[in-house]
Amino acid sequence: MLHGFGQAPVCLELDLDSYDGPWTHVDRFRNRRGWLMVANTVMTTPDGEHELGIVVGCDEWGEAIPGWQAAHLLECACSLPQPCDEYAPAVLEAIAQREAREVKLRWLRENNRELLTLAQAVEAAVAAEEHRTSDLIDRTLADVGDLRRRRRSPLLTADNRVAIDEAIASLEIGVEAALHNLELERGRIRAEAGEKERQLLKHAAVKVEIEPAYVVSWHDGAPAFAGAADHTADFDWRPPRVEFTYEATRRNAWWRDRAAGRTDPRAARGGMAVRARR
After folding, report:
1. Out of the domains of life, which is the source (predicted)?
2. 35 near 107, Cβ under 8 Å?
3. pTM of the entire structure?
4. DSSP letter string, 163-179
C-alpha cells in the first residue's frame, strides 16, 4: 500500500467501496477516522531469526482495531498520501507491542512442544465442559417443553397448574445455574493453564523486535465524513403563510413590517405589535 514511504506519518482518504471482500469487513469504519501501523516483526529463536509483518490500528477514540480488520483497510483503494500535521497517538505503539507479544505466543504454541500440548489440553477441557453443559441444557429445555404441553391440558386443576409452573421455574433456574457454572469452570481452566504457560515462557529464549514500516492517519472518504454542505448559508427568511381573516391580515402585516424594520418595540408589551408611527 505505502511501500517506501518510511516512518513519517501520512494522511490518506480510503475508498471503502473499493474493498473486494464482504462489506461487513469494513462497514464499521464508514464515516470514521483513525491510525494504522504496518511493522516488521523479527523473532530471534535458538534455531535462527524469523520475520513477518503485522498490521495494527486504532480509531479516533484510541480503541484498538483487531489486526485482521486493520489488514482489510490496507486492501482498500486510497488517495495520494498527504503530509500529516499530527503524530500518531502513543496508544498505537502500545497496541503494536501487545500484538508482538501475541505473535510470540502464537509462534511458541506452534513450535514449542510443551506449550502446544498445554494449549491443546486447554481447548479439549473447555470443549468437554461446554459439551457437557450443552447436553444438560438440552435435556432441561426438553423437560420444560413437555411440562408446558401438559399445562395446556383442560383436565388439570388450578393446583396442578401451579405445581407445573413451579417445576418450570425451577428448571429454568437450573439452566441459568448451568451457564454460570460453565463460565466459572471455563475461567478456572484457562487461569490454571495461563499460570503453567507463564512458567514455560520463562524458559523460552525467544526475543521479539518491532520495526515500524509506515504509519498512516486514515479517514473514510464518504461524503458524510467529508462534511455536508452548509444549507443555512443561503437561507432566506420568509413570513408565515397568508391567512385570509381580519386578525390574520393584521398579523401578516406585522410580520412584513418586522422584516422591513418598521415595528414598534413598545407594542410587544401590549400583547400585539402594531405598525410604528412614521
Report:
1. Bacteria
2. no
3. 0.47
4. HHHHHHHHHHHHHHHHH
